[in-house]
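new request in #modeling-help
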Amino acid sequence: MKKSLGAKTLAFPTPVWLVGTYDKDGKANIMTAAWAAICCSSPPSVAVSLRKATYSYGNIVARQAFTINVPNENQVREADYAGIASGKNEDKFARTGFTPVKSELVDAPYVAECPLILECRVSHTLEIGLHTQFVGEILDVKADPQVLGEGGLPDIDKVKPIIFGPEIRAYHGIGRYLGQAFAVGKDI
Amino acid sequence: MKKSLGAKTLAFPTPVWLVGTYDKDGKANIMTAAWAAICCSSPPSVAVSLRKATYSYGNIVARQAFTINVPNENQVREADYAGIASGKNEDKFARTGFTPVKSELVDAPYVAECPLILECRVSHTLEIGLHTQFVGEILDVKADPQVLGEGGLPDIDKVKPIIFGPEIRAYHGIGRYLGQAFAVGKDI
């Protein structure tokens, strides 16, 4: 018999991604988002939900572009900081020591130090409630050469993404390999 | 200098969640989804994207409800199978040995054997491209008593959710604890 925990934003895993944007003056900003996911295969798209109160919200509305930056587990302090501070009154790139790189494809910066980044142009905006969801078409994915593995794809054990546990407010790393998708369940 | 990998649905981590639905005859079905995320804090909401070709798509359109079931890493074979087979021609509950439980809150079944489940009523439907995104308001979260930890919340090390790596097609477990959210980055 399952125990009812109430109507909560509680599910595992959620990502820890940094959303890169420019403000009206061209200042680069990042904010941490966990309410985010790949949301369409064709066109390849990613969704990220932000509160209107965030500085990044206004940036995305104005520029219609953002980047998704996947931090490495060694960047967990910087990622946490970017979810606490606001770009309204802090220069989060300066404080974290991260380097903003202007995307050549969209009107947004990406984080040079993050191993994996996505450059996105807003295709849909959905008002849900406290959060507004921006769907971005992924125009390119870029990775650091040193995290690439088999077939030229990123090796998840080298990228070392961070997992967020909502409600329990905990960060975890990636664990052991469990098997190949579209393969381990074939014989059931 | 980052290497361009092209416009791909490539980001880590993505979840491995089972979407529970009823078909027109009341047959319970599950399908695996990785294009899914929490998408709003108030009302608490979760988004899941499905292709129109899936059996679950029609079920959700008709019933306007679904459950999200978080499988344990020991259920990786069942989770993989539910992403390969179609409810059009297979009874996936019977094949996996999973038990469908009728939700008392929404018109959808959940998986008795999954440690953590969300009961959702569709609030928005967004056409993105190949995938249609269903946003569901989370009416309740339920967990097995044996996975509960501190403060009555689920212990992620007991839930043991699965992480999917798109493009690399790999499943991984949860790894080591990296720190407390809204805390480890305070001193930056």
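bot summary: The CA atoms of residues 10 and 166 of chain B lie 6 Å apart.
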